[in-house]
Amino acid sequence: MIFGLLAVTLALFVWNRWRYDIVAIGALLAAAFLGLVPFREMFSGFGHPAVITVAAVLVLSRGLLNAGVVDTVARQLTRVGDQPWVQVAALTGVVALASGFMNNVGALALLMPVAIWMARQSGRSPAFLLMPLAFGSLLGGMLTMIGTPPNIIIAEYRAEATGTAFAMFDFLPVGFGIAVVGVIFIALIGWRLTPQRERPAASGELFEISAYLTEVRVPEGNRYVGHTVYELMRELRGEAEVVVVGLVRGERREPMPAIYEVLRADDILLVEADSDSLKTLLDVTEMELEARVEEAEEQAEQEGNGEKRENALGELALEEAIVTPGSRLVGTTASALELRQRYAVNVLAVARQGVRLSERLDKVRFRAGDILLVQGGEEELPAALSELGGLPLASRGLRITRPRKVILASSLFALALGAVALGWVPAAPALVGAALAMVLVGLIGPSEVYRGIEWPVIVLLAALLPVGQALETTGGSQLIADGLFALGEAASPAVMLALLMAVVMLLSNVINNAAAAVLAAPVGIALARSLEAAPDPYLMAVAIGASCAFLTPIGHQSNTLVMAPGGYEFRDYWRMGLPLSLLVIVTAVPLILWIWPP
After folding, report:
1. Comparing C-alpha atoms, which of 443, 357, 569 is closest to residue 59?
2. Does the pTM of the predicted model rise above 0.90?
3. What DSSP assignment string belongs to 165-221?
């Protein structure tokens, strides 16, 4: 029964129709009703040290970002010059180092706008920088126990198998060797294997919004005089795709007027609409075409935070942003979230897979990786995007860092790492304590604590840990281990490690890497028992394999995030990912056997 349940679960993960945490909860419920997991132990995973540690690391990552710790380093990257391999080496090296101590998606999110800015300044497509950046974030996660969820999971499985968990820096000797070799390969060879397509998403021409901005006048006696902007847009919904982005009333010029602004005679509305929607607007409302906004006045000024376009209303702030996998935008629409009313944000256009969508915006259900062109107040827009889970893509200035906050955040984090490394305190309480300290000193707001945690990942881990234990208690993991043992019975330990690592790598490319670690760790322990060997090298092989999702855009959030901005296609990942995966195996196996002999 356990194999049938796992087969269905893996199929649903690959199908990707339902989010992975929903699938994991379903698998947990099924395991309980099938008698594979006792009902009283169903939710034991929510109190598991691995789950608590992952949540604490995510909160600490938010604190480090808020303090500007990584910004301090990222600012120096703009000075590395125009040589492609130098840019790739600098970006990949920095993101790998940062990912060893914080959430790798967070490190990628900070450096991705820097990479896009560097590519545009050099006159190249961001495609040659973004995939190396994503892969660098995965390589860096192998450096420490807290670098990536699979390492935290493996550390706890080792504690269950031997009584002692892997320590904070036990992963470093193997992880550092892999990271160095991987970064060198990416900098010298790997980036040349990325597709260099000049796609709209890469050139900044994805949203030529000037062609869609038009001024219309509300004439004397028009039936909308005395009615609100909201009533106008509500009546047009379903007939025309129109967004009111500005209002001119005499000397008053108001970017993005309130939806309950009452219209008056001779008001001039700046609307975003294509030619068909504009015609419908004029026909239905009997308003008058005032003047097409001159395209020259709409050219983006590629300076500062996002794009700024000038028109009759003065300066409007526009931003290109990507929808992150954990965003509250995923699976819903702009109208359902009431973005204009609740967040003072207009969505002017949506692009998917490098192509601007032509369907009506109120019908578009956002997906992770979608690129949005949004409008809002210059001061309010960054905060709104952060709350919604949108990652700015346009060139932006790095935040002004305060040395005191950088030192304070770094000191708290270093204190927690030192306490864990020296064995004074287990990882979970030490990291939770550091996270609480960051809240108390004001580095993280109380509400940011909950926004900083990727709850789908937490639920996934908590739900799958009992299922993974069921795989072991039912003898399923031993059966798989016996199969691997029979397959390589006459093989050396090096071959067995390589085989196990390769299998886990393939698994992590189609399901979440944390899920791959939960399912593969019991197999690694059982395989060690079959070989009458120590479990350490086999658990380390599982940890490395689970972190190397280089072949597909769905294996890790970092790969998903760079897909649309880089203009990549599904098949593009294996071109650099396959040789990198093989290089990791060739590098990792000798290092594991040297550091952790069986």
Report:
1. 443
2. no
3. PPPTTTTHHHHHHHHHHHHHHHHHTGGGGS-----HHHHT-S--GGGGEEEEE--TT
Q: How many residues are present in the chain?
A: 598
Q: Residues 6 or more apart from 337 whose CB is under 8 A from it? A: 328, 329, 343, 388
Rounded-to-integer distance, Cα 393 and Cα 378, Å: 15
pLDDT on residue 297: 40
Q: With the C-alpha atoms ordered 435, 440, 443, 446, is the resulting torsion angle positive or negative?
A: positive
User: Among 57, 50, 166, which Cα is nearest to 102's?
Assistant: 57
Measured between alpha carbons, how far is residue 49 from residues 164, 417, 431, 453, 462 in Å? Answer: 13, 16, 11, 16, 10
**Which has the closest alpha carbon to 202: 572, 537, 529, 454?**
572
Dihedral angle computed from the Cα positions of residues 194, 197, 201 and 206, in that order, rounded to the nearest 10 degrees: 180
The predicted-structure confidence for 126-137, as pLDDT tens digits, reads as follows 888 999 999 999
Q: Which of 596, 492, 475 is nearest to 539 (CA)?
A: 596
Tokens describing residue 405: 């906050």
Please state, in angstroms and rounded to a whole number, the distance separating the CA atoms of residues 375 and 340: 10
Instruction: Compute the chain's Rg from CA coordinates.
Output: 26
Token output for 526: 């059982």
pLDDT in tens, 13-32: 777 678 788 988 999 999 99
In the chain, what's the furthest Cα-to-Cα distance? 91
Give me 252's structure tokens: 């008053």
User: For residue 580, what are the CA distances in angstroms to 1, 186, 377?
Assistant: 36, 8, 43
Give the residue among 278, 285, 290, 279 at the shortest CA–CA distance from 217.
290
Burial of 9 (0-12, 13-18, 19+ CB in 10 A): buried
Structure token pair of residue 423: 């064995």
Burial of 442 (0-12, 13-18, 19+ CB in 10 A): exposed
Strands 346-352 and 355-356, bridge-based pairing: antiparallel
